[in-house]
Each structure stands twice: as C-alpha cells, then as structure tokens.
Design a protein that fits this description.
Blueprint: H1 2-7, E1 14-16, H2 24-29, E2 36-38, H3 47-50, H4 52-55, E3 64-65, H5 69-81, H6 85-108
Parallel strand pairs: 1-2, 2-3
Length: 109
C-alpha cells in the first residue's frame, strides 16, 4: 500500500501512538520508507520511563519523537506541505498570524 501511495503521488506520514513500551514507531520505521513520527501518550505515573523506548532506538530507524499531539500533527502537515501547496499556504499563514500576535504583544508591554 505504501508503494502505491508513493507512486500515485499521495503524500503520507505515519504517526505511531502506543502506550507502555512505545515501541511501535521503531517497528514501523524499520518496515516502511514513509516518514514515521512517534507520539507516545505520556502519563504521570510511568511516562518518564516509557518514553525512552521512543527516544533510544537501534541504528537506522530514522523516526522522530514528538511529545505533544498538536505538534505531531503540525510535523505531519509540514511533510505533506512539501507536495501540497494548499497545506503549505495554511502553515505559512498560521506562522504569519503568530508573528503578528507576538509583535502586538510586544508593543503592549
């Protein structure tokens, strides 16, 4: 399926969300050429220990770990934006609005 998507020009990113060991991302990254982003669901009780299986991985896995779901979605959008001008434009507009908001906040202080 990944080859068909790539050959058809469909941009794709895999987001791996798995609790406890969080080893899903490295396993998927070892079995696909698509970009893989780990987004482990951290919880207060074991999150600090569980995240290590997403951060310390074997060589040549090539996946990223993003701890916040919104930022994982933004990372996916940025990958897709490389081939989709509408997505690129929306990201760029959001960045510009953030810059204007920061400039406005600076002027008020």
């Amino acid at each position: 399926a990944e080859f068909e998507a790539a050959s058809a020009g469909v941009p794709a990113v895999v987001v791996a969300v798995a609790g406890r060991s969080n080893g899903l991302g490295p396993v998927v990254a070892g079995n696909t050429v698509l970009p893989v982003i780990n987004c482990p669901p951290l919880k207060a009780d074991w999150g600090a220990e569980d995240v290590w299986s997403s951060l310390r991985m074997p060589s040549a896995m090539g996946c990223s770990t993003v701890l916040d779901a919104d930022n994982a979605a933004l990372a996916c959008a940025r990958v897709i934006a490389l081939q989709e001008p509408v997505v690129w434009s929306k990201i760029k507009a959001r960045q510009c609005l953030n810059q204007l908001a920061l400039m406005d906040a600076d002027e008020k202080h």
